[in-house]
């Protein structure tokens, strides 16, 4: 898959992230590129950094600060999956769902 097509897949994957974690990432703003440069999606082809997959890094802001979600793209299964979430994002989501005693599970745990 070309990097341009993978970028489009990464954009489309925002809806999955929003649903899974109950956050709003401003999909429309990512598409329009009207956001400040620290809102971005990076494609990293250094496979050995992402369990042998292509890395997709989402950087965006939430109330508590700069959030980052690191995903991997498995080209054999054409699937994007979460590898790691930074502590700011984890604390935001867990705080939001505290009443349910929700704990985030990612590959960094």
Describe this entry's structure for a reader:
There is one protein chain. This protein has 109 residues and is an alpha+beta fold. It has one domain (3-100). The protein has three helices and four strands. The chain has helices at 3-21, 27-32, 87-96; strands at 40-44, 54-62, 65-74, 79-85. The protein has a four-stranded antiparallel sheet. β3 (65-74) and β4 (79-85) form a beta hairpin. The protein is globular and about 40 Å long. The chain starts with a helix and ends in a 13-residue tail after the last helix. The relative contact order is 0.16. The model has no long low-confidence stretch (mean pLDDT 86).
What's the average pLDDT? 86
What would the principal axes of the Cα set say about the shape?
Answer: globular
- Terminal Cα span: 30 Å
| Count of discrete structural domains | 1
Q: Bin the strand percentage.
A: 25-35%
Biggest β-sheet strands, sense, barrel: 4 strands, antiparallel
Quaternary structure: single chain
Fraction of residues in helix:
25-40%
Low-confidence stretches: none
CA-atom Rg in angstroms: 14 Å
Question: Quick recap of the structure?
Answer:
By secondary structure, the protein is an alpha+beta fold.
Keywords:
109 residues; alpha+beta; four-stranded antiparallel sheet
Topology summary:
Elements: H1 3-21, H2 27-32, E1 40-44, E2 54-62, E3 65-74, E4 79-85, H3 87-96
Antiparallel strand pairs: 1-2, 2-3, 3-4
